[in-house]
Task: structure prediction
Amino acid sequence: MFMGDLKDARLIYLKGFLFLVIGLMAVTTILLENFSPRMAFLLLIAIWSFCRLYYFMFYVIEKYVDGQYKFAGIHSFLIYLWQQRTQSKPRG
Result:
């Protein structure tokens, strides 16, 4: 069953809050099972870098590289990269 985009601001905030809760639960579980300062640091760096990658995919490409590109998710970004790769290949 296909569901449309969320339109209710309360549901959108709830969705964001649930992502936060899920992330915090996952980090807490990882650290409780295998705590070390090194593990905490590496987890922090991984989370930060994936957040920056996501920002890069949806904002940087659209605003600074290709104004025609409209982000619709990670899958759409991978398709965009594939299309850019195939379009830039020299044909001979």
